[in-house]
Amino acid sequence: MQKVNYGRMFDELAAELEKRGERPSLLLHACCAPCSSHTLTVLAERFRVMLYFCNPNIAPESEFEYRSRELKLLVSEMGLDIEIIEEPYDSAPFYALAKGLEDLPERGERCRKCIALRLEMAGAKARELGTDYFTTTLTISPHKDCAFINECGLKISQECGVKYLCSDFKKHDGYKHSIELSKQYDLYRQNYCGCVYSKKLREENQ
């Protein structure tokens, strides 16, 4: 099966929107400030972005609140007039899907279910708000399966009726740029994805 170039798909759509002089609305699921930094530099001029902080996987609650504050600080420091929508902290949906999958490594079935959950919630929120597109910052991470994220987003798009914006934000040195921006804005860069299982794995491998 031929590998899909999701980065090229994004570039082609962005070029077409610019050619037509269009700036559609977009709900951007954000996992944290560092991943959002480069992504916002790519999207803010091309789309009318709303940020959606929806991460029931993050633990403990203090970590969730810290990442939320950092995201708001980033938007302010970047001088962006962007609304941030935050889902209240509720880890129950994540622990329900993780039951029986606790010992699996990252990028396994637990992670795929977690990504699907957050994209489903983003798709539902995009439909509620009536945005033209929805997408996620998660494709900037070299630790995530970009193909799975996009395939999942496209499937959810069919279910919720809102177009999914395919991406690979780590392309064009996006991940490297996110590190540079994190230093520039003095952002907190967490050393684990978010859940207690990824935290435990990182601690064991230190």
Q: What portion of residues is helical?
A: 40-55%
- What is the number of E strands? 5
Report how far apart the termini are.
Answer: 37 Å
Low-confidence stretches: none
Lateral strand order in the biggest sheet:
3-2-1-4-5
What about the largest sheet? 5 strands, parallel
**H/E element sequence:** HEHEHEHHEHEHH
Rg calc: 16 Å
The number of helical elements comes to: 8
Q: What's the overall geometry?
A: globular
Instruction: Identify the quaternary structure here.
Output: single chain
**Class by SSE composition:** alpha/beta
The percent range for strand residues is 5-15%
- What's the mean pLDDT score? 94
What does this entry look like structurally?
There is one protein chain. This protein has 206 residues and is α/β, with parallel strands linked by helices. Helices cover 51% and strands 10% of the residues. It contains eight helices and five strands, in the order αβαβαβααβαβαα. A five-stranded parallel β-sheet has the order 3-2-1-4-5. The model has no long low-confidence stretch (mean pLDDT 94).
In short:
With 206 residues, the chain is an alpha/beta fold. It contains eight helices and five strands; from the N terminus they run H-E-H-E-H-E-H-H-E-H-E-H-H.
Topology:
Blueprint: H1 6-20, E1 25-29, H2 33-43, E2 48-53, H3 61-77, E3 83-86, H4 92-98, H5 109-129, E4 133-136, H6 146-160, E5 163-164, H7 174-184, H8 196-204
Parallel strand pairs: 1-2, 1-4, 2-3, 4-5
Based on the model shown, name its key terms:
alpha/beta
